[in-house]
Specification:
Chain lengths: 551, 551
């Protein structure tokens, strides 16, 4: 059925409720189409035969075109505009509830962000990214940064153009303010280049509402505490005996065990799937159709288990979305950092904890009874816990433990912000990277493939994304602390495998809240009465590892 | 990038080549989106978790809306209209090749068929179908035809409305002619009801260009030959010993064997997948991404093997589509009947043949070496062939052997044509069904769940579809005969497992031809110099089963 777009004057005679309802119809249609896109992405990584890469690219591109047209349609624009007029004239909170108001706010922001970009820029960016990824893969293979540098340079140019359009259109007011202040203090004229505040605009895409100066302070605090903690652990030069983790671990059994753990935690297999892919991820088509993946390595038991628990955390967030506001923007995750908090809360606060292994170690022993794993049978929970939580600085972020991981991120944040804002050049990246690795983790990088070429993020134009990993780990500690306060004897529940208690609390306090709040910081404040703060996080790490390493 | 639709006067100044190119751009976009729809359908049957039925329905409906809008866009209409003007004024074959001309013809027909239906009718049909399927399932379970009858009545009403719109708009000229002739001979005035020719219009959707009177003659010939053949086999009251097929067949081994057979035949796993679903089907997203399914039954070895070979035949057609005209209408299968000919050619002409089992029986023996299948090890190819080709009339179409299957279809054709054209009422269906079962197969139907309630087709509004199964089997025999003439020693190739010889011939002579011809009959005539004809088919069955049953 074709519904003709209404004219502005027709809309002006309608009630706020009717305008809102029309907005929801459009939002739901976009959500359905985005769900399809999510399924295609999952299929591509998990199921698709090799020869159909081209046809899948065509399908994704056709669908993206359709979604873009819906997201930027003038009929959607007219409804949003009329709602903006009403909002300027009266307080809509008498007619709409906070979730509905959030839907208007989020729809308006998304509409602006989509409509402000010229299609030439969107196309140039897609085209560059596909070339840049190829160049990066080659450069990493040969450990030859020079092969990647020109593409990074171009990505930064395009990202700056994108931010320019967004700032002009008012997508990120905070970024505009920073830029104006910097221009004024430098005495710049219109037309003079100045990229201050640009990182704020990029960060805002992944962590909406989060201010860069707060991020900066958090990360400075982290460095001050973690660099000496790591140095102390290093100086100890001691590791708990982990002979019981060596050898080969039957992949079918690993898979069965991971499925069991994931289901015990609360992953709903009637509303999702767990499969295998090269790089684990959580995606899918809907909160009732969450597709997560993991991977199993024959000689590394920990990778499959922690990977599964991590993705289960993401999946519980997706499966726990508000049913009342299903398929509207407010039901979506607040930010990447908050999403990561849910994966890390389960992976670390639960999955690396003694209560968790108190009930899970017997299941592990039950699963692996082969003579080759005899050593596992006699290990105690305390010993298992100490060895499972091994800390060891390394070059590669994705292999890092929870103590060193944060500094991998701080290093990337410092470099990418300086790059985008013009404080360093692309050529300076490797030197800076290596100096920081030495300073933060005490490691000498001898090859760029183990250094600044290890991650794909910059090649695909993801700048402002890395910080969300560490924001996630800080959120996780504060959210878990709030859960502990709210749930009597949480540790005892976890030790008995009663994970549903924690899951239910997260469902109510995080998952169903969706994007109601304006930032992750607001969410934490609403939950705990405190802003995001690295001190609880540092305290958690310090106390835990002081005991484990007897510091 | 938004491209504004061109005005009619702008188009009138463009070259035919340019108009054609614009048509292709639109056709390809539609094809990409249809590919997505195909993937969603596959996923729903094979991968989707149970709770996401609603979200998937929303996604499919949103996508269908998008595709419908593209298929009926006025910009597409303008291009087609301009091409029609040119075609009226000059012979376009000097500028476009036959494949390109077919693309114009097929696009015009699809555009008309889509634009002629009022959206209210499309919605009413979707809504009825979902209710009718529920009612049918319940009716079948309780063997209570009265519970389904009102829905069948409504489906027929809606189908007649649909045909009415199509006939008025000139989608099926043949149907209109039949109707006019009948009206004239009955002396009807405008406004008087007359449904003669309506079945022609419905058949045309599944078997384009095929005339109902030819179908009628083919089916009459079939009855004349097959009813006595079956009676003769029945009278013989003899079956070859098939003890070696009894017992339980390990499903994992069945799966491995089916995959092997499918790959040997030529299914390309780099351009497709083979999975398991409740009802076997071939679907997918693209000719480079063909998804087929089969099913395995513990106590029925034949079901999994023949099902896999059948779907492999469909898949080879899809994987063998023209690469030059990829994603345009001419690359698509000509008709359901021709598609079925490809599955049946492999399932029957090859998979039920002695040459095939000459090389495949040793592989089967190799796979199933358990003591419980000792009897298999000593069976000869001749004995296997005789027992594997068991004929036995039964109530259920999908379980029928190749001799009786055709009569199941003839019976349905006769009833559904009479229903749509108003010669019988819905209430008369069970009685007529049972009388025909007695006459054609010698069976007494005692319960409608084993009779007229067994198939889902009528519930979902598929009328005019059943005949394509039997047209497929007739095409298959004629196509296989043509292949035998073209390929020296084809039987010897098959006996050595050199299936690629036949596959290549089919690729070139059937698959890559796509929808170039106007009907399956044209295709056969082009290939063999003869029209479709049941006599070769009857000869094949008569000779084969006269030997097997020593008639």
């Amino acid at each position: 059925m074709t519904v003709l777009a209404k004219t502005t004057s027709e809309l002006s005679s309608e009630s706020v409720r009717s305008l809102y309802d029309q907005l929801v119809v459009k939002a739901k249609e976009i959500s359905h189409l985005q769900g399809i896109s999510g399924l295609l992405g999952w299929d591509q990584e998990v199921m698709m035969p090799t020869n159909s890469a081209d046809s899948r690219a065509n399908q994704l591109s056709a669908l993206a075109g359709v979604i873009h047209a819906k997201e930027t349609s003038s009929s959607l624009g007219s409804i949003l505009e009329e709602l903006e007029k009403r909002q300027a004239a009266q307080d809509l909170s008498t007619e709409l509830n906070p979730y509905e108001l959030a839907n208007i706010r989020l729809s308006r922001k998304a509409y602006k962000a989509e409509t402000l970009l010229p299609s030439e820029l969107v196309q140039a960016s897609a085209s560059l990214t596909s070339k840049a990824v190829g160049a990066w893969a080659q450069a990493r293979k040969e450990s030859d940064y020079a092969k990647f540098a020109p593409y990074l340079e171009q990505q930064i140019t395009l990202l700056r153009q994108k931010v320019g359009h967004h700032m002009k259109g008012g997508v990120c007011e905070e970024a505009r303010k920073i830029n104006e202040k910097a221009r004024a203090s430098l005495g710049l004229k219109e037309g003079d280049e100045c990229y201050k505040g640009y990182y704020q605009a990029l960060l805002d895409e992944y962590e909406p509402g989060f201010k860069v100066d707060r991020l900066h302070n958090l990360f400075e605090d982290l460095k001050k505490s973690l660099v000496p903690l790591i140095a102390k652990i290093n100086a100890k030069n001691f590791q708990h005996d982990d002979a019981f983790l060596q050898g080969e671990w039957d992949v079918t059994k690993q898979k069965e065990f991971s499925h069991r753990v994931s289901e015990r935690i609360g992953f709903d297999l009637e509303a999702g799937r767990l499969d295998v892919s090269t790089h684990p991820f959580t995606g899918g088509a809907h909160s009732t159709d969450v597709r997560m993946t993991t991977r199993y390595t024959l000689t590394d038991l920990k990778e499959g288990i922690t990977g599964t628990i991590h993705e289960t955390g993401h999946s519980l967030y997706e499966q726990g979305r508000s049913k009342e506001y299903v398929d509207t923007p407010v039901s979506a995750a607040l930010s990447l950092g908050v999403h990561e908090s849910q994966s890390l809360l389960w992976e670390r606060m639960v999955g690396l904890s003694k209560p968790f292994w108190t009930n899970t170690l017997p299941l592990l022993k039950e699963k692996f009874q082969e003579p080759s794993h005899e050593a596992l049978q006699s290990v105690t929970v305390d010993h298992f816990f100490n060895a499972w939580n091994r800390v060891e600085p390394g070059f590669i972020r994705v292999e890092a433990d929870e103590v060193t991981y944060g500094l991998h991120v701080v290093l990337r944040y410092e470099i990418e912000k300086a790059l985008v804002e013009g404080d360093i050049t692309v050529a300076e990246v490797p030197g800076l990277w290596n100096a920081k690795m030495k300073e933060y983790l005490g490691l000498e990088v001898t090859e760029d493939r183990l250094g600044c070429l290890q991650d794909t993020h910059w090649a695909v134009g993801l700048i402002g994304y890395f910080p969300t990993y560490t924001l996630g780990s800080i959120y996780a500690v504060q959210i878990f602390a709030a859960a502990k306060e709210a749930i009597p004897n949480l540790d005892e529940h976890l030790a008995k495998g009663e994970f549903h208690v924690l899951k239910k609390w997260l469902n109510e306090n995080i998952h169903q809240q969706g994007s109601l709040r304006e930032s992750g910081d607001d969410l934490i404040f609403g939950l705990t009465g405190q802003h995001l703060d690295s001190s609880l996080y540092v305290k958690y790490l310090t106390e835990k590892y002081t005991k484990i390493y007897d510091l």
